[in-house]
């Protein structure tokens, strides 16, 4: 069983508290679980370590009884009281309780009287009219619950970029076909390629606004039209996310795009600079302020016009975080960022030889479709027993296959032999040196240690990077967005050592990893670190996730010359640590 980190423990205790509230337990009891959960989420040390040393009761809010429950949780993934609570009321009821206007008492009533065990079931019960017929409810109360449910669904947390981007692109394609439409551009956090997206903003330049509004209401994936006015329509999609579409006249498109791209911080800073220059910028254009209330419109058809009016070149949307990009734009010092087209191959891809679903040949065909020059095979190394990591015999077989595929490759991508090593508790990796020397390159990753101290994990990574055969560190912080916190690490020390040892840092492009992330990349660049943007594909189709890694690299100000897999094969190989040493 994977080790539970503090966030996971906290989530389970929270669930326990919520289920107790639904069950009508004494307030003191369910609040005690929630208080403990909050304390644990913020606690700096991993509870798994404290449990081993019998120190769980050091955590505020954790008494002797709760300590026993947490020990059971760590050992088995659950504890008896939680099992009992889940048997009495389904966990999906917790989300029902959170719907505005529902609460614990009504959630219990909906479950006991109507069998509602999830928000989807609540939706159906509302549709059938069951809710309004319930004792103490009536049409008015049911309508309030329906509104609450819409609000809840619209604000049901944020989605991964990978869930938002294809939807926005689909919507944009449909809207581009509407007569009179000149341009369609996703804006907001999506255009900035934030790792998660609250809602999707799409900006349309068109002469006939109502035609666009009508088209938005008719988009194939619209579940509900929330609001539709003269120039703005908001819809909920069947997939959940809200999409806001705004229409502007072509002359305003640049100003509106700049405004609705954000970020808010970037825009606030920009408006301050405009004011100092006697200018005003808003979503309608750039204006020169004259005497009294007189103002003259001097631009706004394109974003470049907006920035040029402020004496700036246009910063790429990914940089608009107000963390230095405005100064760089003003002094002509914006970097030429990495682009997807710069990528020449993927350096992290698994096959059916371990835990993935595609063969090496399938991966190669997918890489060929992407126009790649090379592709690596990097299956899991021996020590990762839960996925039956590669034995040396299995590696010999794989290498023979690679030789055969490369010998008859024609125009297909060249296959590099790699592996994903496991960094052990002491920083050592799988296999003997004579085996390690036979790979074209090695990735090494932390697959354990989420409960270890930052000191210990940092030491493990530093030791791994000292290994002359460890060329790349895979998904360096181990985070999974929304599900797992990064391993405790002194990231600055790790990045400094990466620069000093010439170890490449991965930008894992798998959409729920995106690891290293933007802020780490900026820190790494200061240490002269080079990067590999890699998908960690477990299916051939996953090779297409490269775009998410490139977006994250761009947010980190990374340029093509800093990326090893933006180099031709010879340059890539020559820059690897093992070959630079020789
Ligand atoms: P999200 O949706 O939470 O992922 O983040 P955004 O950045 O897409 O935020 P959203 O959808 O509320 O607004 C889109 C952009 O519009 C935002 O990045 C900046 C601009 N914007 C919207 N409202 C305001 C505002 O009141 N002030 C300023 N300065 N900008 C705004
Ligand atoms: Ca948004
Ligand atoms: Ca929005
Ligand atoms: Zn991997």
Descriptive report:
Strands 11-12-13-14-15-16-17 form a seven-stranded parallel sheet. The chain has a five-stranded mixed sheet with strand order 2-4-7-6-5, with helices on both faces. Strand 8 and strand 9 form a beta hairpin. Helices cover 45% and strands 14% of the residues. It has four domains: 150 residues, 5' to 3' exonuclease, C-terminal subdomain (DNA polymerase, domain 1); 90 residues, Beta Polymerase, domain 2, CATH 3.30.460.10; 78 residues, Beta Polymerase, domain 3 (2-Layer Sandwich); 242 residues, TIM Barrel, CATH 3.20.20.140. It is an alpha/beta fold. The structure holds 2'-deoxyguanosine-5'-triphosphate, calcium ion (CA) (2 copies) and zinc ion. The site of zinc ion has 5 residues, from loops.
Q: Count the beta strands.
A: 17
Quaternary assembly: single chain
CATH topology of the largest domain: TIM Barrel
Strand content: 5-15%
> How many alpha or pi helices?
26
Major sheet details: 7 strands, parallel
What distance separates the N and C termini?
A: 42 Å
User: Could you say how many structural domains there are in total?
Assistant: 4
Average pLDDT for all residues? 93
| DSSP helix fraction | 40-55%
- Rg, Cα atoms, Å: 27 Å
Q: Spatial order of the strands in the main sheet?
A: 11-12-13-14-15-16-17
- Catalogue the unreliable spans: none
Structural class, by secondary structure, is alpha/beta
CATH class of the largest domain: Alpha Beta
The general outline is globular
CATH superfamily of the largest domain: Metal-dependent hydrolases
Secondary-structure arrangement, i.e. CATH architecture of the largest domain: Alpha-Beta Barrel
- Ligand kinds: 2'-deoxyguanosine-5'-triphosphate, calcium ion, zinc ion
